[in-house]
Design goal:
single chain; alpha+beta; Aminopeptidase; seven-stranded mixed beta sheet; 6 helices
Length: 173
């Protein structure tokens, strides 16, 4: 994956303390499905150890410093669900959009997915702006579990199909 200001790399156990501090902040964790609150170092180590074949996760780095994570979970029929989080000090500077855009490009060009999905909680308007900017189409409302809030939260689900030009190139290859 590549983007203008950010670099991406595999997450390692050495990242656990930083991930705990950034992702474990209430304002970050409450906008994700899987990050508990409070988020402990042990839980971060456990999560890193469970990143497997059906899940692709990369640390987002700015000037060599981990500021968030981006990734996908492989689905059925050539699809994947993408997700991302960013530490609060880096909100509002376009980094989440840049990282999500790089992930979408990677998913279509390198992984060959035909369809990507994503969701955001209704109260996460920043993520809604990013998702729309990336060209995702609203599928409709649903509910999703939020580990930090320990409840199901009203959610909106989106889909984006592989661009037509990429479909033709893939068949020709």
């Amino acid at each position: 994956m590549k983007s203008q200001r950010l670099t991406y790399r595999e997450i390692t156990y050495a990242d656990a303390a930083r991930i705990t501090r950034l992702a474990g902040e209430w304002d970050v964790a409450r906008m994700t499905a899987r990050i508990p609150y409070p988020y402990t170092l042990t839980q971060a180590h456990q999560w890193i150890g469970t990143i497997g074949n059906d899940e692709f996760v990369r640390a987002i780095e700015l000037n060599g410093e981990l500021i968030g994570a981006v990734g996908y979970v492989r689905g059925d029929n050539g699809s994947a669900e993408i997700g991302y989080w960013l530490g609060k000090p880096w909100w509002g500077q376009g980094y989440a959009s840049e990282a999500a855009e790089a992930l979408v490009a990677y998913c279509f060009a390198k992984e060959g997915f035909e369809r990507l999905t994503c969701c955001h909680f209704l109260d996460n308007v920043a993520s809604q702006r990013i998702i729309k900017k990336l060209g995702f189409r609203l599928v409709g409302p649903c509910v999703a579990w939020c580990e930090a809030r320990c409840s199901e939260i009203p959610t909106l689900r989106y889909v984006r199909r592989r661009p037509m030009l990429m479909r033709f190139r893939r068949r020709a290859a």
